[in-house]
Write a structure and sequence with these properties.
This protein is mainly alpha-helical and 115 residues long. It has 5 helices and no strands. The termini are far apart. This is Mycothiol system anti-sigma-R factor.
Length: 115
């Protein structure tokens, strides 16, 4: 994503560190660089707003569950491995929902044939 304008901090760098910014897990200098970028790049500002809204929604809906202590570090490690290209994202076969499965009705009331 890019607005097509040159920036001191590249859009891809900003988006790579967006969650660190949202979670206040970066230095003040780096936070300032991203804030400056958001001020001049509308697409990145929109992405920031969207991710911030999703984060708030997840917190509101799922914020009451206890999370195992090591889960956060496992997830962050996985994200870094995917970003670095060492591994790809996990893709799973789609799960068929009950509503999309074809119903199979028993042969009720039909005469049975024998061969």
């Amino acid at each position: 994503m890019s607005c097509g304008n040159p920036h001191e901090t590249d859009c891809s760098e900003v988006l790579d560190h967006l969650y660190e910014y949202l979670d206040s897990e970066m230095s003040e200098g780096d936070r300032h660089k991203l804030e400056e970028h958001f001020g001049e790049c509308h697409p990145c500002l929109e992405k920031y707003g969207l991710e911030q809204a999703v984060k708030k929604l997840v917190k509101r809906c799922c914020g009451h569950d206890d999370v195992p202590g090591d889960l956060r570090s496992k997830v962050l490690t996985r994200i870094e491995l995917i970003r670095s290209g060492e591994i790809g994202p996990v893709t799973e076969a789609p799960v068929e929902s009950p509503s999309s499965a074809k119903a199979v009705e028993p042969d009720q009331g039909r005469p049975q044939t024998t061969s």
